[in-house]
Amino acid sequence: MLNIRLAGAVVWLGLAAAAGAQAAQTFLRDTSFEQRPAIVLTNDKLELTVTLTGGAFARLTRRDDSEQLNPLWEPARAAREAGEKPRFGASLGHFLCVDGFGSPSAEERAAGFPGHGEAHLLPWEIQSSGKEGSIATVRLGVRLPLAQEAFTRTIRMADGEQVVYVESELESLTAFDRPLAWAEHVTIGAPFLEPSLTVVDISGRRAMTRPYGPGGERVRRLASGKEFTWPMAPTKDGGEVDLRAAPAVPNSMDHVTVALEPSREFAFVTALNTRRRLLLGYLFRASDFPWLQDWESYLRPATMARGLEFSTQPFDLPRREVVRMGTLLDTPAFRWLPAKSRIKTGFIIFYTTAPESLRKVDEVTLSGGKLVVEDRSSGARVELAASVPFPASR
After folding, report:
1. What pLDDT score does 7 carry?
2. What is the pLDDT at residue 298?
3. Which of these, 334, 308, 306, 304, lies nearest to 321 by C-alpha position?
4. How far is CA 141 from the centre of its chain?
5. Global pTM?
6. Are 349 and 166 in contact (CB under 8 A)?
7. What's the average pLDDT block by block, 10 residues per block, for the chain (394 residues)?
8. For the chain, what is the HEC assignment?
9. Neighbours of 270 (CB within 10 A)
10. Nearest of 334, 386, 348, 337 to residue 267 by alpha carbon
11. What is the pLDDT of residue 22?
C-alpha cells in the first residue's frame, strides 16, 4: 500500500506540475493552418500563427478586431473563395527563403534542390518556449540537409505591445565560403490589400523594374528592366505610374526592386489600408537586407497579392546569376556566408490601427522604447511601445 500511495503522490505531483506549466504558457497554443500543424503566439494585443511545416508566419491578427482581419496573404483561402484552384504551392503570408531565392539552376534541380530553398518546406521543431516577466519567447529550429546549414528563429512578444520581435541565426556546416541567398518573403493579400486603398511605403528611392523576356509583356503594365525613382515607375506604353497603391482595375503582374537607403540603420516597409485604418510594418537593418522586392499579382481583386520581400538580392534568381550580377544600383547583389560560421539577423513587425490623418509613411524610427511612424505632410504620428531591444545582427 505504501508503494501505491507513493506512486499516486508522484503521479499527482506530476499532473500538478504539468498543469502549472500549462498555465504559465497561456501565450502559446497548438493549432493547425490549412492542414498544417501550427502554433499561436499571443499577448493581449496580437496573435501570430506560425506553421511548424516551413516556419511561416501565416496569420497576424489584432485581439480587439471583431473581423480578425489578417493582412498576410492566404492564397489557399483566396482561391477557394474565388472558386479557383490554388496556384502557389507551399507559399504563405510570410515565409522564409533560405538558402535559395528563386528557381534553382538546372544542376541544382536535378540534385533535388527546390525553388526558394529548403526551409519553407521542411518540418521545424520547437526548441524552447517560456515567459519571463512580460516577455514571451519561442525558439524554433530546422536543419537544411541539402544546403548543409542549420537555421534557428526566436520570436518574442511583450504584453501590452503591438510589436513582434524576430531574431534569426543561420549556421554553415560546411568548410567553405558560399554566396548566401536569404529573403523574408512577406506577402500581403486581399481583403487587407484593396485596389486604390492599400498603400505601400519604403525607405528607398533607387529602383528598377524586372527585365522580362519575349511574351512577358502580355500581363505587364511596367516597362522591362528600367531604372526609376520609387514610387513613380515607367510603364510599357511610355508613361509612368505611382506604385504605392494597387491599380483601381487589377489586371496585371509586375515585379520591381528597391535599393534601400544604406545610410540608415533601420530600413522599413509599411502597408496602410486607408479605408480600414490598419497599418502593417516591418523594420530591419539595411546592412542585413539591402533590397526590398515589390512583387505585384494584381489579376483579380479577390485574389490580389503583393510581395514586400526584404532580401540579400535584388530579384529571385538562381545563385549563379546573382553572383554574376555582383552589384545592381551600386548595391551588393548577394552576401557571403563564411565557412563554419553563423550569421544573425533581426527584424520587428508591427500591426496597429492608424489615425484618419495618416495617409502615407515618411519615416519609422525606433528609440527609447518607442516605435514612431510619421506622415510629415499631415503631421500624423503613430507611437507604439517597443520595450524589447532590437534583435542583434552579426
Report:
1. 34
2. 95
3. 334
4. 17
5. 0.92
6. yes
7. 34 38 72 95 98 97 96 93 78 92 94 95 97 97 98 98 98 97 97 97 98 81 97 97 95 96 96 98 97 95 95 96 97 97 97 97 97 97 96 80
8. CHHHHHHHHHHHHHHHHHHHHHHHCCCEEEEEECCEEEEEEECCCEEEEEECECCCEEEEEECCCCCCCCCECCHHHHHHHCCCCCCCCCCCCEEEEECCCCCCCHHHHHCCCCCCCCCCCCECEEEEEEEECCEEEEEEEEEECCCCEEEEEEEEEECCCCEEEEEEEEEECCCCCEEECEEEEEEEECCCCCCCCEEEEECEEEEEECCCCCCHHHHCCECCCCEEECCEEEECCCCEEECCECCCCCCEEEEEEEEECCCCCEEEEEEEECCCCEEEEEEEECCCCCEEEEEEEECCHHHCEEEEEEECCCCCCCHHHHHHHCEECCEECCEEECCCCEEEEEEEEEEEECCCCCCCCCEEEEECCEEEEEECCCCEEEEEECCCCCCCCC
9. 23
10. 348
11. 45
Q: In this predicted structure, what is the pLDDT of residue 25? A: 66
Domains, the chain, with CATH or none: 28-357 (2.70.98.10)
